[in-house]
Amino acid sequence: MTDESGGISRRDVLKALASIPIFGVFFYGFLKKKGADDFRREEILSELGVTERGPAVIPDAISRPPGERIRVGIIGFGGEGESLVRHAGFAHPDWIEDARLAAEEDPRNKRLQTYLDQEDLNIAITAVCDLFDVRAERAIAASQVDVRSGGGAQMPAARRYRHYTDLLESGDVDAVIIATPDHWHSRITIDAVNAGLHVYCEKCMTRTEEETHAVYDAVKNSDIVFQLGHQNRQAESHIKAREIIDANILGPVSLIETTTNRNDPVGAWVYEIHEKGSPQTIDWAQFEEPAPNKVPFSLERFFRWRCWYDYGTGLSGDLLSHEYDAVNQILELGIPHSAVASGGVYFFKDGRDVPDIFQAVFEYPERDLTLVYSATLANGKWRGQMYMGHDATMEVGGGLTIRAEPQSTRYEQKIQDGIIDPSMPMFTYRPGFKGFDAVTSATEEYFASRGLLFTYRGGRRVSAYHLHIKDWLDVIRNGGEPSCNIDRGFEEAITCHMATKAYLEGRKVIWDPVNRRIV
Amino acid sequence: MMQAGVKTDGVAASYGNFQLTALVALRMLIGWHFFYEGLTKLLNPYWTSAGYLSEAQWWFQSMFLNLAANPSALAVVDFLNAWGLVFIGLGLMLGCLTRAATIAGIVLLALYYIAAPPFVGYAYSMPAEGSYLIVNKVLIELAALLVTLAFPTGRLVGLDRLIFWKSNPGTQALEQAHA
Q1: What number is the average pLDDT over the span A6-34?
Q2: Does B2 touch chain A (CB under 8 A)?
């Protein structure tokens, strides 16, 4: 059988290389396809003048060494307050245990890792005020937690104050985070400003128009740093969306459609009533002190305050405020000329007086555009935030997608040449495209899809809350302007109150820019 | 009738021309598919296996989820997958180290299959391009590779003819004997 002397014949070489023609066909096809794809991509990108990379300028993305420790007081330690304190680096031990178990069960659950990866902001939670004993105790436990973000050191326990004024005057704090119901925001903010303390206040900035002016004047006449809690300001996709607008890729934008779509009780503010909630554990008199209507002790009203105008403004201040601020961040719209609104309590007939279905339309004649807000708490169908221009439509959420308009003037030639296909996204931006996240509840998914839970920096997932608090602390230490300062806050609150007023009075309301009043 | 034969792993195989052509064509088509899948992944900076892994079902679900959730493990998986596809594809097309490439291809396809088997009751968010019940195209491609493993052709038509010339010099003699 063996034929050592045979050597390699021409026939062997031919048979060995038989696949070469197939390779020829392969590479011909491959290069042709790749060439066509690359040509289209480059043509589109050079036409648009933007890159698919992360935003060129990310405010405060470069971490600076935190200077001296800032002593922070937390006023209001409900769901939002606890979340803010955790994103500032102090999670409640129970939360850490839950997150640890969740990560063990499902490795996609990155809550704990994101918490641990957060930077140590070099702050201490030195004081807490909450009207419910259980929550005040939770805040104290969080303030001295031993598992800290960024490997931060354990801090001494926060001191509890029964009344926020005692906290402000204690001398124990340099800055306060206000996460109370809306009806307390303005009073606490103004008192904190008068005490010379920096303020991070949750949205909506105020409950009424009058309060908005009072807060604005107080902050403007002081040198404290005020940050409003619109963490969407940190979303990479929103910063990228501004680049898109600046590059005028959409053409004239005449309509912006933004929405809220939720379909679960928690999303409709039907929060759990704590088993230990009672007149003995809750300071009800203090809770309702600034509310326009006084009612007997009510667990529903205490735990589900967002359902009543006595304490908040419903969808206006709660969720329109986020959507509006995102649009204001991207387009710098300011206060609208007019607003109309309608809606009703159509699904959650649980005694609430704020609507669960709510639509508001704002006119900006000077910008030649209309902003529409459409909200339902009884249907979760995804409707993205749409910027509708003559040449293209941009959808913004956690990422960003742009589709050319078939009737676009600007892209007419490229559509004819087959370079741009209006039925396909012309430009997509997906921050953090490598890796994925497990998001648990429907409400969380809603927030995540709108860039409100987490965002990305250099492909790494970071909590938007964390960045927003850090943004505030950076300005306290190094000067500058926080990204959602009092001017943005004034615009947010007035716009929301225009919608509320239009809804409650059943008429079109106008903003008088000279007298700075809603009329 | 003209016969081609080869001795691999002690099993003598001899194919007719039609059989050989069909087997080589099968090998090259699978190679083409692997090679192109690998190249597109290498050339697309946005590609990641995370989406596929995150959809994993069945017994090995937690293993795949762990891989997807760990950025450094994911980077390794992505790297191995893309380059694995490229080299397996090249090996099959060129007939170069064909046996190793075939086995590696079978392993890779088996991993794809067990990660997302089309069993009754398993739903995937990514739409399939066809309708599958237990058998999908991954499984068929895997079986086709088993055929190319059982009926090897690399040393007849492929670079292995030269690579293994010394260790398997009987090829030419066999072919000539049958001529």
Answers
A1: 84
A2: no
Per-residue CA distances from A74 to A102, A130, A149, A279, A369 (Å): 27, 8, 18, 23, 40
Name the residue type at position B140: I
Q: Mean pLDDT, chain A, as a whole number? A: 90
DSSP letters for A405-463: -TT-STTHHHHHTTSS-TTS-SEEE-TT-SS-----SHHHHHHHHTTSSEEEETTEEEE
- Name the residue type at position A4: E
Mean pLDDT is lowest, of A202-211, A247-256, B37-46, for B37-46
- Residue A87: CB partners within 8 Å, gap ≥ 6? A118, A463, A465, A466, A469
Contacts of A433 in chain B (CB under 8 A): 46, 48
Least CB-CB distance to B157: which of A18, A34, A106? A18
Closest C-alpha to B178, from B146, B156, B152, B151: B156
Bridge partners (DSSP) listed for residue B149: none
Contact at CB, A436 and B162, closer than 8 angstroms: no
Assess contact for A159 and A127: CB atoms under 8 A: yes
Q: CA A205, CA A489: separation in Å to the nearest integer? A: 6
- Amino acid identity at A516: R
Report how many Cβ contacts below 8 Å link chain A to chain B: 87
Contact predicate A353/A346, CB 8 Å: no
Q: Decide if B21 touches A, using CB distance below 8 A.
A: no
Chain A contact for B167 (CB, 8 A cutoff): no
Least confident of A103-112, A441-450, B101-110: A441-450
Chain A neighbors of B66, CB-CB under 8 A: 107
The dihedral region occupied by A60, where left means phi > 0, alpha psi between -120 and 50, and beta the remainder, is: left
Question: Mutating which of B36, B92, B94, B164 best tests the A interface, going by the most A Cβ atoms within 10 A?
Answer: B94
Please state at what angle helix B17-43 crosses helix B98-115, rounded to 10 degrees: 60
Please give the Cα distance from A87 to A113 (Å, whole number): 12
Examine residue A307 and say whether the peptide bond preceding it is cis (omega within 30 degrees of 0). no
Nearest-CA distance B98 → chain A (Å): 12
With a cut of 0.90, is the ipTM above it?
Answer: no
Of A384, A469, A398, nearest to A433 by C-alpha is: A398
Binned at pLDDT 50, 70 and 90, residue A446 comes out as low
Residue B78 in contact with residue B23, Cβ under 8 Å? Answer: no
Confidence label for A8 from pLDDT (cuts 50, 70 and 90): confident
Q: Which residues contact A353 (CB under 8 A, 6 or more apart)?
A: A307, A308, A309, A345
Token pair listed for A420 = 């741009």
List chain A residues with CB under 8 Å of B173: 1-3, 6
Which residue in the set A6, A30, A107 is minimally distant from B172, CB to CB?
Answer: A6
pLDDT at A137 over 90: yes
Identify the structural domains of chain A with CATH numbers, from first to last: 70-231 (3.40.50.720), 234-271+305-460+485-518 (3.30.360.10)
Strand-pair partners of A341:
A360
| Of the candidates A414, A40, A403, the residue with the CA atom closest to the CA atom of residue A250 | A403
How crowded is residue A27: how many other Cβ atoms within 10 Å of its Cβ? 12
Burial label for A519, CB within 10 Å (0-12, 13-18, 19+), is exposed
The model's pLDDT over A363-379, given as tens digits with 9 standing for 90+, comes to: 999 999 999 999 999 99
Closest CA to A463 of A179, A57, A113, A77: A113
